[in-house]
Specification:
This protein has 425 residues and is mostly beta strands. It has 3 domains: 16-140, no CATH class; 161-166 and 296-422, Mannose-Binding Protein A, Chain A (Roll), CATH 3.10.100; 172-289, Mannose-Binding Protein A, Chain A. Helices cover 9% and strands 27% of the residues. The strands form 8 sheets. A 5-stranded antiparallel beta sheet has the order 3-4-8-7-5, with no helix packed on it. It has a 4-stranded mixed beta sheet with strand order 6-1-9-11, with no helix packed on it. The two termini are 29 Å apart.
Length: 425
């Protein structure tokens, strides 16, 4: 394999970039400075095929890479050093307006990246190194996070979750060995829980000792568990591929950091609501196989347009001051309409996020508010989703950003609004 890639620049001014790839974990302790140039995130997408020639690596820089050209589809020259993952004829597409994204499509001589393992860092920029200070901090490559549809199919108002049904269609395969595969996320779940109530430590030990289908098991993360719940049904709120699901709470692996360290996140599969009981209490458990690595949120903010991209989900979020203003709280129908009318960042295709989308930007490893630092306008308030409660159509789901919790509220009540749109690929 040729470990060096040369691509002819199509721009007015050629920019030659050297990227360093390593196959080891960890990250640099170097902190980016205000004026430095660095990689903010990198997302590797196989497009769910075995053909490497449609695999893409999207690299997001913190600023414009080539300040000397107005060519918005800049193709740049590269020297690739390190593990040799790129072949000779990779396709390069630079889109400065898309959060300074360089999209690299691999060729047949390339080798696949390993999300969660491979790191990428700037090593040199031949023409720009005298203009910017370069930060060489490593970024771990992640995979896309494929959000499921909530499950809601009925529409209660124009432009709600039932009309748009954004996300990947739920699909599950029973493997005949006591397991169920989520065909979208690739997660393998325990098909039937054993109906035994356990405290949290016992539930954790139970999953770790489980040998079903000769796989290795663990308690699911809270994000995995809440997305498994189907908001288009109830009692139980889960797909029919899963057996013996109780109308009760199920343990996650995650501590509820907004209160006592003894509290643990749970999901109630009677109605998809979240809770935070003490770990000494007894609840049910459904284990998940640990082999599948899921994408993690990777945020980049456009300060000019006041929007934030999550590169892992390809969603762009409104981040204007009115999103957290008490004076701008709205009823549910007003929230749906306001997002449809929003014109921001040169786009008018905004919508009110469904519950799975809204939940994807909650950070359950922090609280007060439970959001990433890239969001400049954040507050520990309730924010509407476009998803109606299945058991009561006069109520809709919201996320409470103090803790990242989900619950329902009457649609005539007033909550904050943060709109979303799907980014172009």
């Amino acid at each position: 394999m040729n470990m060096f890639t040369k691509c002819t620049s199509l721009s007015i001014v050629t920019v030659s970039t050297l990227l360093f790839l390593t196959g080891c974990g960890g990250s640099s302790s170097s902190e980016p400075t205000k004026d430095s140039l660095y990689i903010k995130s990198a997302v590797y997408d196989t497009n769910e095929t075995a053909d490497i020639t449609d695999d893409t690596l999207s690299i997001y820089f913190n600023r414009t890479v080539d300040i000397n050209t107005s060519d918005e589809n800049l193709s740049q020259s590269f020297d690739i050093n390190g593990t040799g993952t790129f072949g000779e004829f990779v396709k390069l597409d630079y889109n400065d307006s898309m959060f300074h994204r360089l999209k690299i499509t691999l060729d047949a001589n390339s080798t696949q990246f390993v999300p969660g393992v491979t790191n990428i860092a700037l090593s040199n920029l031949n023409k720009l190194q005298n203009i910017f200070s370069l930060n060489h901090a490593e970024v771990t490559v992640t995979s896309p996070r494929r959000l499921l549809k909530t499950g809601q199919s009925a529409s209660y108002i124009a432009h709600d979750d039932g009309e748009y049904q954004t996300g990947e269609t739920r699909s599950y395969t029973s493997n005949g060995d006591g397991t169920v595969t989520d065909d979208v996320t690739g997660l393998i779940w325990q098909e039937s829980d054993d109906g035994v109530l356990r405290d949290w430590n016992s539930a954790k030990n139970y999953c770790e000792a489980l040998t079903t289908a000769s796989l290795t098991w663990q308690l699911p993360s809270m994000d995995q568990l809440i997305e498994l719940s189907d908001k288009g049904t109830n009692s139980p709120a889960i797909d029919v591929a899963f057996n013996n699901t109780k109308n009760s709470e199920y343990w996650s692996a995650d501590e509820y950091l907004a209160s006592s360290a003894d509290d643990i996140w749970t999901v109630n599969f009677a109605n998809s609501r979240t809770n935070d009981p003490d770990k000494s209490l007894s609840h049910y458990v459904r284990c998940v196989n640990i082999a599948k690595v899921q994408g993690e949120a990777r945020y980049t903010r456009d300060n000019t347009n006041q929007v934030v991209l999550d590169a892992s989900t390809n969603l762009i979020w409104q981040d204007t001051p009115d999103t957290i203003s008490d004076a701008d709280k709205k009823t549910w129908s007003e929230a749906v309409d306001s997002c449809e009318q929003l014109d921001l960042g040169g786009y008018s295709d905004w919508r009110l996020p469904n519950l799975n989308e809204l939940n994807s930007i909650t950070d359950k490893m922090t609280h007060g508010p439970a959001m990433d630092k890239e969001f400049q306008n954040k507050k520990s308030n309730r924010f509407w989703s476009s998803t109606t409660e299945d058991a009561n159509s006069s109520s809709a789901w919201y996320s409470y950003f103090y803790c990242g919790c989900n619950d329902v509220e009457d649609k005539t009540d007033a909550n904050n609004v943060r709109c979303v749109r799907t980014a172009e690929k």
